[in-house]
Design a protein that fits this description.
Structural class: mainly beta
Order of helices and strands: EEEEEEEEE
Largest sheet: 5 strands, mixed
CATH superfamily: Cupredoxins -  blue copper proteins
Oligomer: single chain
Number of strands: 9
CATH architecture: Sandwich
Number of domains: 1
CATH topology: Immunoglobulin-like
Helix content: under 10%
């Protein structure tokens, strides 16, 4: 299982994650920011939308069947990150 952790604090740290194709993968988002904008993470590319209250963390599975770059952002689209599957 490929695993990555993204801290949410004035943006996404790191803002780019790389996974290998066809290996199971997951990202854990750790919420450390109290701004309203960053309380949600969404991705049309990866088909998820999650709410993250301050102090919470949530893990999502990432589909690695296809190679490419897949974007995610905060609920307001002001902060961005991406998942690269090679």
């Amino acid at each position: 299982m490929q695993k990555a952790k993204i801290l949410i604090n004035k943006g996404y740290k790191p803002d780019t994650i790389e996974f290998h194709r066809s290996d199971p993968a997951e990202i854990t988002f750790v919420q450390e920011d109290s701004s309203v904008c960053l309380r949600q993470v969404q991705s049309k590319d990866l088909n998820f939308q999650i709410d993250l209250p301050v102090g919470s963390e949530k893990t999502i599975n990432i589909n690695t069947d296809q190679t490419g770059e897949f974007n995610f952002s905060c609920g307001m689209g002001m902060f961005h990150g991406k998942v690269i599957v090679k």
